[in-house]
Amino acid sequence: MIILGLTGSIGMGKSATAQLFRDEGVPVYDADAAVHELYGKGGAAVAPVEAAFPGVAVDGAIDRLRLRERVLNDAEAMKRLESIVHPLAGKAQHDFRQEAREAGAPFVVIDIPLLYETGGWQLCDYVVVVSAPADVQRERVLSRPDMTPETFVSILARQVPDAEKRARADFVISTGHGFEFARDHVRAIIALMNRKEEEARS
């Protein structure tokens, strides 16, 4: 089974591109959704994160805005948070891959925002980077609720630059021309992955 990593900087259209793969019937692991579950009521990360950052849990779930305020510009705090969350998210991803393999999926997409930053790319056979022009990215991000230009800059500072991501990728999907344009790229990649998996089996 081929592992296809999917990543892209904030505001590039990665989540929408992941949905394009889902629309074509490809199993997609969503790292953000896994973390939401870990932070939600009864989630495995709630108690250890609250212990590390007292006051970020509200009604039995992690308040992501409070947590972001505590860790965003503090490298040490971010490292502490990642040491709690990454192993839990890693188990969720392992379980997803195992289920897909048992179901006979020829390939899966692993959607991870910080794929290069966390070393997750090393677990992938190929990497797709989703990209868009900087002005499109900025407009998308600043239209989000609770987002400020300062927060945007802080988030970008933690991410591998888009140009470097594109240089390291096996495939680049541009969302700057709209998602129907991106859908054609997704379908071409799916056809190629299915062909590669068939070749590997023969």
UniProtKB/TrEMBL annotation:
Localization in the cell: Cytoplasm
Reaction(s) the record says it catalyses: 3'-dephospho-CoA + ATP = ADP + CoA + H(+)
GO CC terms, sorted: cytoplasm
Superkingdom as given in the UniProt entry: Bacteria
EC number(s) stated in the UniProt entry for this protein: 2.7.1.24
MF annotations from Gene Ontology: ATP binding; dephospho-CoA kinase activity
Residues reported to bind ATP: G11, M12, G13, K14, S15, A16
PROSITE patterns: DPCK (PS51219)
InterPro entries the UniProt entry points to: Depp_CoAkinase, P-loop_NTPase
Pathway membership: Cofactor biosynthesis; coenzyme A biosynthesis; CoA from (R)-pantothenate: step 5/5
Keywords from the named record: ATP-binding, Coenzyme A biosynthesis, Cytoplasm, Kinase, Nucleotide-binding, Transferase
GO biological process: coenzyme A biosynthetic process
Pfam families noted in UniProt: CoaE
Principal subcellular localization: cytoplasm
NCBIfam families: dephospho-CoA kinase
Its biological purpose: Catalyzes the phosphorylation of the 3'-hydroxyl group of dephosphocoenzyme A to form coenzyme A.
Listed HAMAP family: Dephospho_CoA_kinase
Homology family: Belongs to the CoaE family.
Protein name, entry field: Dephospho-CoA kinase
